[in-house]
Task: structure prediction
Amino acid sequence: MITEEFQRIFAQVVDPVKEGKRLNLYSFEPAFAGPQGGRSIYERREVIMLTSNNYLGLADHPEIKQAMKEAVDQFGSSTCGARLHNGTTVLHKELEERLASFLGTESALIFSAGFLTNVGTISALGDGETVIISDQLNHMSIVDGYKLAEGKVKIFTHNDMDKLKYILERSKEAKRRLIVVDGVFSMDGDIAPLDEIIDLAREYGAMVMVDEAHSFGILGPTGRGTTEHYGVNADIIMGTFSKALAGVGGFIATSADICEYVRHTAHAYIFNAAPPPVVVAGVIKALELMEKESWRREKLWHNTIRFRSGLIQLGFDTMGSVTPVIPIFIGDDMKTMVMSRELLNEGVYIASAIFPAVPRGMSRFRTTITAALEDNDIDRALDVLGKVARKAGIINLRTACKTPPS
Result:
């Protein structure tokens, strides 16, 4: 029975959604009808994709699709079971071995989703005698992970090493301490000072887990992420398959003992269905392509610099981003929603982030640049953004930047 009290709670979320749809301003969950490269199909027309985590442009790669087709023929659509029982195939083991080899760790463990990887690993490691220390702006999967953990949680101000040191100093009596940070922060596009974090962790005897979701395949000379970017080693590397590797799922790469511990204690691993073999086969092929086609990462950074330079030249605030995750600050929820709809009408898809996803007054567009974009896609998107933003009073330049610096 849906009581009045339940209905009251539902209405707090549902009523604004209904109003947004009534005003034709609701832009969440658009249904696309084609692969998501630099462009996709929305309502039978082509749109430029400026929000897709397909960083290396592999999502429609013929070799990946062929590997997945062959896996379906060999393994079927699913194993219909958990990893510890009937859910593991030779493909799962192969991918884990390849990840450990690529990242230089003893072992690796794959999960069905990146979100579950963080939730499962952190909740398993955070027992009652462990203090979990987390950056203020960490991804919600990390937040949900430490909420499920039994240990105490300490939050430090975003990228504030003095605050982190203070927490480490004040928690010396704890038996175990685990510092968890995003490598690249998914809303602001900035990078954690992982070298400083690891130095502090070593000084105070803490373990470090880094979420490489938005840095794996992107940062570092060979795409190994934030650890390679800084030339450091983290105790636990977490990553996802749903971004640079164009699949779905997640992993940790770490010591053999930590992998075995998580394998036998993480509820998100023990009680969850295994990733389908068809997906695992695609990820294996994507990892191969990522290693041998370095031009994809080079093009990703070319596109990132071109787009960000164009935004800055137009007068937009990109909030200090230094990665392919480029926020465009708007500051007003209604303007953000109106502009999002107008952009889509002009053939440019950009996701919006409004309260409660971000604090009040901090609404923004969240663009994620990919190697699949061409220069003409970027230039067209900049023209449209300039036009829509001037109409909304976000920028005041008379003309859009026609040829942003490359």
Q: What stands out?
A: The chain has a mean pLDDT of 95. The CA atoms of residues 80 and 178 lie 34 Å apart.
